[in-house]
Write a structure and sequence with these properties.
Chain B: Its main location: membrane. The complex is a heterodimer of chains A (291) and B (357). Chain A is mostly helical. Chain A is 75% helix and 0% strand. The longest helix of chain A has 33 residues. In chain B, the strands form 4 sheets. A 6-stranded mixed sheet of chain B has the order 6-7-8-3-9-10, sandwiched between helices. A 5-stranded antiparallel sheet of chain B has the order 13-17-14-15-16, with no helix packed on it. The chains are: A mainly alpha (291), B alpha+beta (357). At the A-B interface, helix 8 and helix 9 of A face strand 6 and helix 3 of B. The complex binds adenosine-5'-triphosphate and magnesium ion (MG).
């Protein structure tokens, strides 16, 4: 009798498990295995190399460069986009005329595909007659500047685009969280003599903590995951100045066709991401108030 | 600087002078004029939607007034923000900060006003002891029962010893027994600390048992403002008569009594508990249903197309369908002008005498 139920149970689970294994677990494990092998070429099959690929990675200056870039990219995008998202959500949540329109305007970048966003910004950044150059040229008489072609500014230019794209998306989460906070809490704080600033830091912000945790985990993952716009804007250049880890993995695997080494880099990325996610949960856990 | 204990002894009086509030064309509060004496307990009573909460929120400064003036103490606070009005408030939902502990909730206002730590702790200890919260100070609101949460909200309201305290249906989320206990507790607290209380409720029992003054509101206007006893004994309108007392007062058009056929512009009121069985009584009705209440029975009767109720000692045996006659003493008769809704005490003796004849 019990055996029969087990069989039913497994049969019911089977379809989901097949897909889960076929598309998630098996590729992940294959990647892990491949990372210890050389790249198979023509008739030469993959050869077991042990940790050679990992040693190569640690000695690879481009790997360190893109990792460093990625760190800057994360530091540049996450706090700003989260901060902007909170500001916009507070603003849109207020009783202001035409807030439906403002809400939609803020959300628009999220709806657009990242590739389209990158194309729009490509125009903004174009040297000479791009939007920025026209404005700075008109206001301050600055000469044309190549934001995307200069190693100093290329990464920052990419960061700006990412913030613009992400803040609106995070705003929606904050807006939902804000609307779940009862108005009477704010009123009670007002009666107790608290001003806007104190209400925000002592009431609103702590109550938004679960959202902040969720959003920042997402933002961290996105900072390693979203590279579409780099293809359009800079193609990682100049001299890898705006290349990120995932972009480098793509290049290694599908431009240089070094799939073994790319698998190694992928494992490094996955380890990094899991460490970050776990770290964030521990860091936030003490500070987050869950209902 | 005055010391805290001096402040608490003297609540401030509140004067509302013709305040109004309109929500997009719908009048919620319509020229209210109310005097709340210093240190008194005033209940704002009325049916749902009559503008009680709106009035309270205007006193608190959470809502602006469209017209009229609000004075607290000697100060005109009509245009002032709620933090400048020097009052405290207990919300119907308690509005406790869910991420703060009981202690932090209670001292929130003191912290905002940067009261020194020792003074804060000392006050917290006193308030916690007063409200029986000493063992719960480290808990979060979600870990408290409804009654305990209610007490925390009270603690937050009284710790700063403000001269005025506002409450909006603070007991409506509690069960009947707890409600009764909290009623006594709030009243005792108010008398002990001496602040001025404005208490919103739609429950007439709550208003009558707690308040020094009951302000009965109807459709945004004051129907009657009086001491509970006065309100029960001499309601100034049929609305007040039926709102206060359970079951409500019986109202009869005067012309259904043969002797009063000339007084068709009057409405007569008699409370169910004032009716007595009497074979010569002026009200001759038919019993429709009898409800057993324990010590009493409530007889639902009919006279000339008008329903009324009589509360009688349970010893009386009544059966549906039976006819019964009721009398009442003349001082229990309430006479109202039907058209204007005014109380006509000048006619009470005359009408009473004519009914007995
Ligand atoms: N923010 C608002 N916007 C529009 N109309 C409102 C608002 N607040 C209250 N009203 C209206 O004003 C009237 C009075 O409302 P109020 O909340 O003061 O009633 P109340 O006496 O407190 O009723 P209850 O006993 O149900 O709480 C109601 O008709 C209500 O619909
Ligand atoms: Mg209300």
């Amino acid at each position: 009798m019990i055996k029969r139920e087990w069989i039913y149970g497994w049969l019911l689970l089977l379809p989901a498990m097949v897909f889960l294994f076929a598309f998630t677990h098996i590729p992940a494990i294959t990647t892990l295995i491949n990372s210890f092998y050389s790249t198979p070429r023509g008739r030469r099959p993959a050869k077991f190399l042990g940790v050679d690929n990992y040693e190569r990675m640690l000695a690879d200056p481009v790997f360190w460069k893109v990792l460093w870039n990625n760190l800057w990219f994360a530091i540049g995008t996450i706090p700003v986009s989260v901060g902007l998202a909170i500001l916009m959500a507070l603003w849109v949540n207020d009783r202001l005329a035409g807030r439906g329109f403002v809400r939609m305007a803020y959300f628009t970048p999220t709806v657009l595909p990242l590739i389209a966003v990158a194309n729009i910004w490509l125009f903004f950044y174009t040297p000479g007659f791009g939007l920025f150059d026209q404005i700075t040229g008109f206001l301050f008489g600055w000469s044309a500047s190549n934001y995307l072609g200069n190693p100093e500014t290329a990464l920052n230019a990419v960061i700006v685009v990412t913030v613009w794209k992400e803040a609106g998306f995070f705003m929606i989460f904050y807006l939902a969280a804000l609307q779940a906070i009862p108005v009477s809490l704010k009123e009670a704080a007002q009666i107790e003599g608290a001003g806007r600033w104190i209400i925000f830091w002592r009431i609103t912000f702590p109550l938004l903590m679960p959202t902040t945790l969720f959003v920042s985990v997402n933002a961290v993952i996105n900072s390693f995951r979203l590279v579409d716009h780099i293809f359009i804007l800079t193609d990682g250049g100049p001299d890898n100045a705006s290349s990120l880890l995932l972009f480098y993995i793509y290049e290694t695997a599908f431009r240089f066709w070094e799939t073994g080494y790319a698998a190694t880099l992928t494992v490094a990325l996955l380890v990094l991401l899991s460490l970050l996610a776990i770290g964030q949960f521990f860091f936030f856990d003490r500070k987050v108030h869950y209902k | 600087m005055t010391t805290a204990s001096q402040e608490t002894r003297c609540g401030k009086a509140i004067h509302l002078e013709g305040i109004s509030k309109t929500w997009g064309g719908a009048v919620a509060v319509d020229g209210l004029t109310i005097d709340v004496p210093a240190g008194s307990f005033t209940a704002l009573l009325g049916p749902s939607g009559c503008g009680k909460s709106t009035t309270l929120r205007m006193i608190a400064g959470l809502e602006t007034t469209d017209s009229g003036a609000i004075r607290i103490g000697d100060e005109n606070v009509t245009r002032k923000g709620c933090s400048e009005r020097d009052l405290s408030m207990v919300f119907q939902s308690y509005a406790l900060f869910p991420h703060l502990s009981v202690a932090e909730n209670i001292v929130f206002g003191l912290k905002v006003r940067r009261v020194a730590r020792e003074r804060r702790d000392e006050k917290l200890k006193r308030v916690a002891a007063l409200l029986g919260l000493s063992a719960l100070l480290d808990r979060k609101p979600a870990q408290l029962s409804g009654g305990q949460q209610q007490r925390v909200a009270l603690g937050r309201a009284i710790i700063a010893e403000k001269p005025v305290c506002l409450m909006d249906e603070p007991l409506s989320n509690l069960d009947a027994k707890l409600r009764h206990e909290m009623r006594l507790e709030i009243r005792a607290l108010q008398q002990q600390l001496g602040f001025t209380m404005v208490y919103v409720t739609h429950d007439q029992v709550e208003a009558i048992t707690m308040a020094d003054q009951v302000v009965l509101l109807n459709k945004g206007k004051v129907e009657q403002a009086a001491a509970p006893r006065h309100l029960y004994e001499r309601p100034s309108t049929p609305f007040a008569a039926r709102f206060i007392g359970t079951p409500p007062m019986n109202l009869f058009p005067a012309e259904i009594f043969g002797v009063l056929s000339d007084a068709s512009d009057l409405t007569l009121g008699v409370r169910p508990e004032a009716l007595k069985f009497s074979s010569e009584g002026p009200i001759a009705g038919t019993v429709r249903a009898v409800e057993f209440l324990g010590a009493d029975v409530l007889a639902d009767c009919m006279v000339a197309g008008t329903g009324f109720q009589a509360r009688l000692p349970a010893a009386n045996m009544l059966a549906p369908g039976q006819s019964a006659q009721f009398s009442f003493s003349p001082e229990d008769l309430h006479v109202f002008d039907t058209a204007s809704g005014r109380r006509r005490d000048d006619l009470q003796t005359e009408i009473g005498a004519r009914l007995r004849a």
